[in-house]
Specification:
The complex is a heterodimer of chains A (302) and B (389).
Chain A (H helix, E strand, L loop, with lengths): L2 H11 L3 H7 L8 H5 L7 H40 L31 H5 L6 H60 L7 H8 L16 H13 L1 H26 L6 H12 L2 H17 L9
Chain B lengths: L4 E7 L5 H15 L8 E8 L1 H6 L1 H9 L3 E4 L13 H14 L7 E6 L4 E2 L1 H10 L7 E3 L2 E2 L8 H20 L14 E4 H7 L10 H13 L3 E3 L4 E2 L6 H21 L5 H30 L5 H26 L9 H24 L27 H5 L1
Parallel strand pairs in B: 1-2, 1-4, 2-3, 6-9, 7-10
Antiparallel strand pairs in B: 4-8, 5-10, 6-8
The chains are: A mainly alpha (302), B alpha/beta (389).
């Protein structure tokens, strides 16, 4: 039911003066549900209007029925005539009218008509549709190929995962065995140290654990954070100290009143002296830049 | 979904088996104790037959623990005939190719025989191999292993601080101050194997040539590798001198006999060598000025002298601060200062020493800690277990 119809029905069901105002309007011809679903009412005018509408519809339905039968008979004759067109010339067939309806011949069923007549001429869009269908089929085929490839990759990944799990369990077994060995080899408190010394001659020093066992991520991060935190301090201290030392040297030179050395010494020795200066400057700048720009921490390990 | 593979490759002669053993075991130790690593691992020790012969039991034990011991055949020759470490590296690269490991999902972490890793190293590697924009990364190296506070060890502190400069230079176009490492660097296997290590003859600075070639072929594909590597300094001043001599020979070789090194890089290297060579005359002038009275020179040089001196002291101080959490042995400030001066004198002498002497092919720096022989017990009482056995 349309929303308009529903609203109208709701308005008819409402009690009061508005109800009578609505039903007195001429009922729309193309809205039979309003009539079918109209509530039972005591109003006489509504009753007579519905009865009249049913009568009108019955007459129309009868006329429509006859027209449809006449149309079907016409089509039947036309198809039979086209099939026997080669054998004998077709007689003109008059299109029936509503007033002249003949009884149908149902005793001998006609042979089926040619497909072209049943389905009509091929669509002009048939080529396009076929091309589209072909493209879709090709795309589907590609998708299936990709799915197969992906599936192969997934199988390989699963194999890798299984390998990793196998390795992990192997390592777990190795670590457990190692821990057990270390536990068994660890010195026990239950042994009397004097008895042990007597037995072995002298107490054997406990083997030092390798240094690399102390190289943890936490220690690294602590060291790196310290270097990064000191960066600005280093820069300031370096510049200030350099200025102080250079200033002191210049003051000493000024008050020393040294004799001027020979020109070749004056020209040559400063060159030798100043050669490494660019290296130290770039080194200082590079250190500051690396510590300032790059995050060098590694993830913390629990 | 497939996880990258990281191949921890220790390339050495193999004559320091204890150091190499500790290096490999540091990898095995931490890969089993570091959660959330995003890679699978392989460990290779690429050594010479002579090295294997020094301690076969050590290498066999490593092999039993899953390490692949790759012994470079004595008769192996590269196409261009490179010698030294480059030959072993090239052999390992070809071996990777034979095993199908020369591909983008495999990375090679290069270690010297004394390059131990920590948990931080592995986490840095794990993060780096997830990146798609870089092919090679390197980081800071500390020298805390067997640290004694000797002059040669104190001198190594400055190298760690200088690594900040190295990293900064490496990630900038053209590597303006020629910074790189021969160890503690991670490179994608297919990239390394494309570049290769094969050069004509003996190249003392194979790492420098590798970096130059990679930059030429792949552009600015360098990144910073988080996490430290942990190495050890030379035990004696003589070893320190020999080590620095080798470096200087590498630099000179790259300047004079490596046509593939671009002109700009040669200039940079020449400047590095020159500034290193100038250190000894500068020191001599400084000492001589006490008697010869070059005072007025300070009108020219005095402006920068403060900065140079401060930078040198800063390198020791900050280098020590980086090491402080890792070294167990404490030394006094005075001893540290004296050791620093002595170590610096060896460093400034080294390039001139390199001009006068040449290293031999069998020259290597001992990295196994010299240990005192245990004193045998004079008289051992029989133990229940020994008497029973």
């Amino acid at each position: 039911m349309s929303s308009v119809g529903a609203t109208r029905l709701y308005a008819q069901r409402r009690p009061g003066s508005h109800s009578s105002a609505v039903v007195r309007e001429p009922a729309p011809r193309r809205d039979p549900p309003v009539l079918e679903e109209a509530p039972e009412s005591d109003d006489e005018s509504v009753e007579s209007h519905a009865a009249r509408m049913v009568r009108v519809d019955a007459a129309e339905w009868e006329r429509e029925y006859r027209l449809v039968l006449a149309e079907l008979d016409f089509l039947h004759r036309a198809l039979r005539a086209s099939r026997s067109a080669d054998a004998e010339p077709a007689t003109p067939i008059a299109r029936p009218t509503a007033t002249a309806v003949e009884p149908r011949d149902v005793a001998a069923p006609p042979p089926p008509p040619p497909l072209a007549e049943v389905y009509g001429a091929p669509s002009p869009y048939l080529e396009d549709r076929l091309a589209t269908a072909q493209a879709v089929a090709s795309e589907l085929s590609g998708e299936f190929a990709r799915m197969e490839q992906r599936s192969t990759e997934l199988r390989a990944s699963v194999r890798t995962l299984e390998d990793e799990l196998t390795r992990a369990s192997d390592e777990l077994v190795f670590l457990r065995e190692r821990d057990e060995r270390e536990f068994e080899q660890a010195p026990s408190n239950s042994v009397d140290p004097r008895a042990a010394r007597r037995a072995n001659g002298s107490p054997a020093p406990a083997p030092r654990p390798p240094a690399y066992q102390e190289f943890t991520a936490a220690r690294y991060n602590e060291t790196i954070r310290g270097a990064v935190d000191r960066r600005r301090t280093i820069a300031v201290v370096t510049v200030v100290l350099a200025a102080l030392i250079s200033g002191a040297l210049l003051v000493l030179t000024y008050f020393a009143h040294e004799p001027m050395p020979t020109p070749w010494l004056l020209a040559g020795l400063p060159v030798v002296w100043l050669v490494p200066v660019p290296f130290f400057v770039t080194s200082f700048r590079g250190s500051q830049r690396v510590l300032g720009k790059h995050a060098l921490d590694v993830p913390e390990v629990p | 979904v497939r996880a990258p593979t990281v191949l921890f490759q220790v390339t050495a002669i193999g004559k320091n088996p204890q150091a190499l053993d500790a290096t490999v075991r540091s990898v095995l130790y931490w890969v089993r104790r570091t959660p959330r690593l995003s890679f699978r691992y392989l460990v290779w020790a690429v050594i010479e037959p002579d090295g294997y012969a020094t301690a076969p039991e050590v290498y066999d034990a490593l092999a039993r623990d899953g390490v692949r011991i790759v012994i470079v055949p004595s008769d192996y020759q590269t196409r261009l005939g490179t010698r030294g470490k480059g030959r072993a590296l090239q052999y390992a690269a070809e071996e990777r190719g034979r095993l199908g490991l020369s591909e983008p999902m495999t990375w090679v972490y290069h270690q010297d025989e004394e390059t131990c890793v920590g948990q931080d190293t592995l986490l840095g590697v794990s993060e780096f191999v997830q990146r798609r924009d870089v092919y090679l990364g390197t980081g800071v190296i500390l020298y805390p292993l067997d640290w004694t506070g000797s002059a040669s060890h104190v001198q190594e502190l400055t190298r760690s601080y200088d690594d900040w400069r190295v990293l900064d230079s490496m990630v900038h176009p053209g590597n303006p101050t020629a910074g790189f490492h021969g160890s503690h660097f991670l490179v994608r296997a297919d990239v390394e194997d494309t570049i290769g290590w094969d050069v004509e003859g003996y190249a003392p600075a194979e790492d420098l040539l590798f970096e130059v070639r990679l930059r030429r072929e792949f552009g600015e594909a360098f990144g910073i590798l988080k996490g430290f590597a942990y190495e050890k300094g030379a035990f004696t001043l003589q070893d320190q001198l020999k080590q620095r001599r080798r470096w200087m020979h590498g630099v000179l070789h790259a300047i004079r006999r490596s046509p593939e090194v671009p002109r700009s890089r040669r200039l940079t290297l020449a400047y590095s060598a020159l500034s290193w060579y100038s250190a000894l005359p500068s020191t001599a002038v400084l000492i001589a000025s006490i008697w010869l009275h070059y005072g007025p020179l300070l009108w020219v040089t005095g402006i920068f002298t403060g900065f140079v001196w401060t930078s040198m002291v800063l390198a020791y101080v900050e280098g020590y601060r980086l090491h402080r959490a890792y070294v167990t042995r404490r030394v006094s400030m005075a001893r540290m200062a004296l050791a620093g001066i002595l170590g610096a004198l060896v460093d400034v002498t080294a390039p001139w020493y390199a001009l006068l002497t040449r290293p031999s092919m069998g020259d290597f720096i001992p990295k196994d800690r010299p240990v005192a022989r245990p004193v045998p017990a004079r008289r051992r009482a029989p133990t229940p277990s020994s008497s029973a056995g």
